[in-house]
Amino acid sequence: MTKWDKALIIFVIFFALSGIYWTKLMTFNTDQLYVVIEVDGKEYKKIALDHSNSSRKIEIDTIYGHNVIEVDGEGARFLESNCKDQLCVKMGKITKVNQTSICLPNRVSIKIVSKKSELDGVSY
Amino acid sequence: MKTKRIIYLSLITVIGIALNILESFIPLPVSGIPGAKLGLANIVNLVTMTVFGFKHAIIVGTLRCFMATLVTGAVTGIFYSLSGSIFSTIIMWIVYKYFSEKFSLIGVSIFGAISHNIAQLTVASIMINNFLIFTYLPFMMLMSLFTGYFVGLTGIYTSNHLKKIEINALE
């Protein structure tokens, strides 16, 4: 085992660890989140979250009722609803993947989804 | 002379196939890195390269890949093993020939293990048409440090003894 071998081993460890760190960072950043608004089980709108500070309000008027949904850079929440129990408003903001908030009387649901990776697994 | 060489090379090839089969029975005690393996058959490539030379190492490696594929039954894996074997032999030969006073066989074998991984991932990314698989490379490189170190250590001892035998046998 020469000096160069040790240098090679240290270099490879450094390279691999920085590579692992970089791929973690990259997969975190490219993990694009979407807010999916569904009305009566059908997709009504799909909005990408862009981590900005601006928020937008989406009004949904259906035969079941009236809802206002606020979408900002981090997540989405029900701002107003004309339903009786107001559970959807009390649910608060949802920010993480697979979280959902549902206004059952008005049949409106919002949920956060992420773009899935194309690979499930790799076998050699 | 030539017959002796053929016999030696075929013996080495058979040892490589046996190591390949043996290695498929050994589970790696590292979870989370599927596809990683010990690469014991790389010992054969390394030793053949140091004792017989580059051309014979390529021949032995290719033969071993074909035979081991037929024996273990993983026919779809032939592109992976073949590309890895040939590419790693080329890289190991370059390192061994031009940098052998700097790197010992351990360094040569680590180079071989890493290039083996790179070749396999390249073939895999072409076959499944997705280059995201290269994010797997750092994990494979960490594993190849350990396997490469031990393969190199084995190669040092084996080739020392084999070189002595070869000189007596072939003269």
Automatic annotation (TrEMBL), chain A:
Keyword Transmembrane helix: yes
Keyword Transmembrane: yes
Pfam families in UniProt: NusG_II
Gene3D superfamilies: N-utilization substance G protein NusG, insert domain
Classification via InterPro entries: NusG_2_sf (IPR038690)
Annotated TM spans: 7-23
Keywords per UniProt: Membrane, Transmembrane, Transmembrane helix
Identification of the protein by name: NusG domain II-containing protein
Organism per entry: Crassaminicella thermophila
TrEMBL record, chain B:
Matches recorded under Gene3D superfamilies: 1.10.1760.20
The entry's keywords: Membrane, Transmembrane, Transmembrane helix
Transmembrane segments: 6-26, 38-58, 78-96, 103-127, 133-157
Short name of one Pfam family: Hpre_diP_synt_I
InterPro entries on file: Hpre_diP_synt_I, Hpre_diP_synth_I
Signal peptide interval: none
Name recorded for this polypeptide: Gx transporter family protein
Origin species: Crassaminicella thermophila
